[in-house]
Amino acid sequence: MSETQTSLMNQQLDALLYQETNLVANLANASALINDTYTDLNWAGFYLYNDTTDELDLGPFQGKVACMHIKPGAGVVGTAFKDQQVHRVANVHEFPGHIACDSASNSEIVVPLTKGDRQIGVLDIDSPSLDRFTAENEQELTEFAKILMQHID
Ligand code: SME
After folding, report:
1. What Gene Ontology terms describe where this protein resides (cellular component) (predicted)?
2. Nearest protein CA to atom 2 of ligand 1, as residue
3. For the chain, the helix, strand and coil percentages under 3-state DSSP, each to the nearest 5
4. Beta carbons within 10 angstroms of residue 40's beta carbon
């Protein structure tokens, strides 16, 4: 995939969310779309920043029950949120402070979600395979997050 070419999944996301602005509904379908498109996942979903508690709260997802609250700076999720950078982790067991919500997870990618200067939360995807996520996946998921943020108020 070239940098200028929008992937089929990202075109589907843009079409699926056309004129839809409900946050929960959009994130729910976005997590389902990732789970349907990517193979070899055990978790795909969202953590949303709660500025009252200064925590990331569990949002819509596909997968097993997960941690309800994660502090900024904690685990892969909290670190990506705090740094405002994508974290693509080949082996989560080597990541200091990794939070093992689902013991099946071996690799993970976390993409921060921002709208203007608002830090909304993160997209978090886990795989049972080591080194599951490629640089191309990172590029696609970064664009996915950008499209998603265009469809929330
Ligand atoms: N493993 C994550 C926690 C979230 S679960 O994977 C859904 C982490 O270390 O931040």
Report:
1. cytosol
2. 99
3. 35, 25, 40
4. 10
Instruction: Give the C-alpha distances (Å, rounded to integers) separating 109 from 4, 16, 80, 81, 132.
Output: 22, 23, 9, 12, 9
Pocket test for ligand 1, best of 101, 102, 132 (most atoms within 8 A of CB): 101
Tokens of residue 17, six digits: 């969310």
Does residue 4 lie in a domain region? no
Say how many Å lie between the CA of residue 101 and the centre of ligand 1.
Answer: 6
Q: How many structural domains is the chain composed of?
A: 1
Angle at Cα 77 formed by Cα 58 and Cα 56, nearest 5°?
Answer: 40
66 lines ligand 1 (CB under 6 A): yes
* Domain ranges, residue 129: 22-151
Beta bridge partners of 61: 45
Could you tell me if the CB of 77 is within 6 A of ligand 1? yes
Task: Indicate yes or no: pTM above 0.70.
Answer: yes
